[in-house]
Amino acid sequence: MGAAAVNVQIWLWWLAFLTVFVVLLFADAVFSPRLSSLAVRLELPKRLQVMHEHEVRLVVERTGPLRFSLRIAVDVSADLEQVPAMGPVPMARGENSLKFVLKPLRRGTVEVEAVWFGAKGPLGLVNIKRRILLGITRQVDPHLSAISRDAARLVSSRSLQSGTRIERYRGDGTEFDQLREYVPGFDIRTMDWKASARNAKLLCREYRAEGDREVILAVDSGRLMSEPIDDSPKLDHAIHSALVLAYISLRVGDRVGFASFDQRLNQYVVPVRGQDAFGAISRVAARTDYSANETNFTLSLMELARRHMRRALVVVLTDFVDTIAAELMLENLQRLAARHLVLFVAFRDPTLGEVANRLPEHMLDLHRSVVAQGLIQDRQVVIEKLRRMGIMCVDATPKTVSASLIDKYLSAKRREAF
Q: Which of the listed CATH numbers 1.20.80.10, 3.30.420.10, 3.40.50.720, 3.40.50.410 matches domain 144-166+211-414?
């Protein structure tokens, strides 16, 4: 540095270097891509489905003779899975199309906010960027294709008859279905002696459970239901299971209603019949928002009981933490069960059992295991209290809750308990 400060020749070399660098920098800027000429169009479905990957097409139109490459990033709202940066992507003159995937993590409204473009000059000295605002919003619905697929999987071919009726189990129900020739093992009390005499062979009466019953799906949207299990809020699992049951119940011929509640009863749909009703129920379920309010079981369930006086199967999809917080819930469910058949559905966190059963390596692991075991015991106490009240219960992980729910529904329907 001392030599550079006193030697005039070295100063001249530095001046020449800086001059060349500025000229190259200017030339790189002049011949760099003109991002102001870009036009963007985003093609995506009008409605999205939660936890489903949707292929989206981004069309970038540019003018100018030069061919260059762009780095592209998409800004999305927090309820969408982040989109990885793309590029460098070669851009020819005219329309250029590329595809990426959008995956909504929660229901509600999501937004594709903007697209970032980045490019370098021919010499790599200049890095230019441009942000194009999009502001495209979409509504995220429950995953309807997964709901119909799960419903078809959960209902066996023996249970599903002609796509319209479930429950042709021999000897179940009170509604006459058909006559069937006697084989050893049939209940002799179902023997139809007059028909047997007319046909010169032993015939038995076969019954089925009656249709045209009412099912109310009551979904808790309070604070606890916004907590995630298996990468999705409990509320989304509850809506999925409720719509699976609605799909099956409507196929049977029952009437299905829907309600959501937190501090109060927020939404209520009177029981309706027919496959067209499923679309209406799913649209109302999609509008059930996540709430930060504590659930008020007293106001909500009393209002539900007031609006629906006729005996029905009321499926309450909710959750609780401990026995103390569950006291008001138990009291109001008991009051509801005095008029209706109540099916209580709670969502068990699978990680709770893993923590409780894990061999502790440190003292902190032991403390966690003790706390987890205490929470599991509290759940068992509450579930046992509900069963003693005559309330059917499902306490299962999100992956198994739909199957258990359908089993309870079919069992209640065979017994004509509602």
A: 3.40.50.410
